[in-house]
Automatic annotation (TrEMBL), chain A:
Protein name: Ribosomal protein S5 domain 2-type protein
GO cellular component: ribosome
Lineage, top ranks: Eukaryota, Viridiplantae, Chlorophyta, core chlorophytes, Chlorophyceae
Family label: Belongs to the RNase PH family.
UniProt keyword list: Cytoplasm, Exosome, Nucleus, Ribonucleoprotein, Ribosomal protein, RNA-binding, rRNA processing
UniProtKB/TrEMBL annotation, chain B:
Subcellular location: Cytoplasm; Nucleus, Nucleolus
Organism field: Dunaliella salina (Green alga)
Transmembrane parts of this sequence: none
Name of the featured protein: Ribosomal RNA-processing protein 42
Keyword terms, alphabetized: Cytoplasm, Exosome, Ribonucleoprotein, Ribosomal protein
Pfam families: RNase_PH, RNase_PH_C
Amino acid sequence: MLILFKNKRVIPYSMSRADGRGNEEFRAAFLKTKVLNQAKGSCYIELDQTKVMVGVFGPRQEERKFGFSETGRLNCEVRLTSFAAGAGMNKQMQMAAERNMSAALEQALTPSVLLDRFPKAVMDVYVMVLESDGSHVGAATTAASTALADASCELFDMVPACHVVRVNGSLLLDPTSSEEALSDGSVLLALQPSTNEVTQLNMTGSWSAAERRAALELAMGGCAQLKEVMRSTLLEAAATAPAS
Amino acid sequence: MSHSSAEIDFCTQSCQHGIRLDGRACEDFRPLELELGLIAQASGSARLHLGSTDVIVGVKAEVGAPLREHPDCGRLQATVEMSSCASPEYEGRGGELWGLQLAQALEASLVPEHPEKGGGGLDLRSLSIIPGKAVWLLYVDALVLNDGGGVLCVCVCVALAALSNTRVCVCVFTMGGGAGEGDAAEPEIELEDDEEGEGGRPLQGVAEVPLIVSLGQVDNAVVVDPTCLEEQCAASVMHIAANARGEVCGVQQSGRQGVDPAALVALMERGAAAGSEVLASLHAYFKQAPQQGT
């Protein structure tokens, strides 16, 4: 089922962004589940030009090298397509970026999964970043959380994630890649909205105390918006699913 | 290294009462022992003991070509090797992934994101010899000899110490090696030999490099500089990079549970204050420390 979500502000008080958005406005977010036949759960997210595809498999048997474990494990693997990685990136840098993204995703999603429901097993989350125009880590986290829910994995809560950058002193929500290049500080926040717990926070650049609070509040507001989109996508998918 | 649930429970309870298992208060660091200039062949070196965590860093400076995007900036490349004796899980290639992540974190904290703008880390523009052709490349190699928790903080701290100790040779370059044809001739670079033992010139921007402080959230208590066992007990560990001015330069969260946003903000304040204190005492030590090799 297609969900199109457009968040248009009536008051155009700040037209300083290249695409005419306000500082606190998300791009048009499009989420769709059940896009992969073979995967237990899947999700495709589009934030204008940022496109990420996620497939979830599991719970599957864990490899022997990990030994016995009373709790399950969440394994995230991210791949960047060569056209998503950017022109200047060589293979080494791309692999480093993929590794970092995989670790970031695991960090953001693990607190939301009931791992002790599948001991000795692993839940595999495979993420493919098809195209990146900024904020692809946040988009990947959001899509992965939706895909986990689509895979009927038992979760404490959904985990939306978003980026906030600071360009010339003003805070911009959901930056494009050109805005990220101009920024001198960025925040990535992944939040469990129902329990109001932050599962992941990455900050770069120097932030004063007041700016930190403002950036965190802006990011939390952005996550609340994303959560509504995720919920409506999943509910629509469940409503139109064939009775089994 | 996994601990039993009884050990974890004991540690959590003791943190709630404000006394940690090694007798520290919640806001105390472990005793820090720093040794500078111990590797003679390296341009700069340092070894740090923080409690039982032991990391040694050597810095080598070489002349090389700059990156195309930043033609007048030097380069820094960090590698972190987890020694097999540090923990049985680092045997063979076990510690490779963790080492790569640590190296990434090290590079992110030592040099600013946009080197051509300056500030926020080492001044890479001062490492340029001939803009566009030759710059200094700094290879920072860290070896983790013993892992007692807090390896990220220790790596950054000892890398900072090694860089403060690093001396690069003074460069003299002559235009036109053979048949000089004006601009078409390739300049020759000669590294001035350092017979008086003065040691070359130090690196610029070492005072801007931030320090990383780890804070663990154990139930209601906040513990600074957690050990291995405390990291396991903590719901989450925040790694906060703070510079000498007390500003927060970077935050990274790791852990199995989420953290309340209000607690997050409080943790960042604590981390920034603790980090700037340690940095102040470190820089005071560097000023009066003897030069490399003497």
